Structure formats: structure tokens, C-alpha cells
Recover the amino acids of this structure.
């Protein structure tokens, strides 16, 4: 009897955990979103159907819970994403994956460091990074990875100085 009960429990578990039974969210149709959400997510409209339903639900939830300032930021990010080339998309995805694989304390340290840099310096660094060839990008990345914090900050300051200094004739 116990053996039969065990087989029954195992069978039910297998059925309940099978991919066909696990609930998958239904796709979110862009046209069913509120006018406010459609406006916020408008840069994504063209490719909305390509996002997997989990991502659609995450984006909608984030946008619904956002205040006006956050919604404007989301819209700006979506516009920026659309303006990037497929190669830039690939690079960003790889960078996010590398960041996600870091230990939590390292991610926290990097976030803190990035936030401690002025908006002007961050913008300058991003502009500098965008202009690099793939070989130059790799060389700079390797150089920065090897630096200690003080050297890294000096490097950031120097890049910023070079980018904001008027070019000499």
C-alpha cells in the first residue's frame, strides 16, 4: 500500500511539474495597455511582440509602479536602446551577464562607485567608451580591471578632463 501511495505521489508530482502544466503568463498585447503605459512604453511598441511574456509582464509591472520621473526615465532608456546597433545590444547584454555573475558585495561596490561619480563624468565616460574600436575597448577594459581604486579614479578624472577640455589648434 505504501509503495502504491509513493508511486501515486511521484506520478502526480511529475504531472504537476511538467512544462505543460506550469503556468506561463499570457502575452501582454500592447494595445490593451492604458494610454499612460502605452505612452511610457511607446519606444518598445514596434518590437513588443518579440519580447517573451515574462519580460512583458516585468516591464509593465515596473512601469505601473513608477512615478512620473521614473516613467520618463524608462521611456528615455527605451529610446536609447532602440537607437543602439545590434553589436551594441550584444555588448550590453554581455556586460549585464558579467555583472549578474559577480558576487553581491562586488555588485554593490560597483554600483556605489558609479553613483559616486558626477553625472557629468559618467556622461563623459560613456561618450568616450562609445567612440572606442573593439580592440581599444578591450585594451581599456583590461587596463581598468587591473587598477587599484585610486588609480581607477585618477584614470576617470583624466578621461573626463580630456573630454571636457577644448581641443587645441
Amino acid at each position: 500500500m505504501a509503495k502504491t501511495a509513493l508511486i501515486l505521489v511521484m506520478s502526480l508530482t511529475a504531472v504537476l511539474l511538467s512544462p505543460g502544466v506550469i503556468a506561463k503568463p499570457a502575452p501582454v498585447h500592447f494595445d490593451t495597455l492604458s494610454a499612460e503605459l502605452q505612452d511610457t512604453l511607446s519606444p518598445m511598441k514596434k518590437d513588443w511582440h518579440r519580447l517573451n511574456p515574462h519580460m512583458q509582464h516585468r516591464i509593465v509591472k515596473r512601469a505601473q509602479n513608477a512615478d512620473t520621473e521614473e516613467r520618463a526615465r524608462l521611456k528615455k532608456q527605451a529610446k536609447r536602446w532602440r537607437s543602439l546597433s545590434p553589436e551594441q545590444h550584444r555588448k550590453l547584454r554581455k556586460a549585464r551577464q558579467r555583472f549578474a555573475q559577480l558576487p553581491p558585495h562586488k555588485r554593490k561596490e560597483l554600483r556605489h562607485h558609479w553613483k559616486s561619480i558626477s553625472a557629468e563624468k559618467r556622461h563623459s565616460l560613456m561618450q568616450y567608451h562609445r567612440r572606442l574600436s573593439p580592440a581599444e575597448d578591450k585594451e581599456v577594459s583590461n587596463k581598468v580591471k587591473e587598477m587599484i581604486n585610486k588609480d581607477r579614479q585618477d584614470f576617470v578624472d583624466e578621461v573626463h578632463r580630456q573630454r571636457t577640455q577644448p581641443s587645441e589648434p
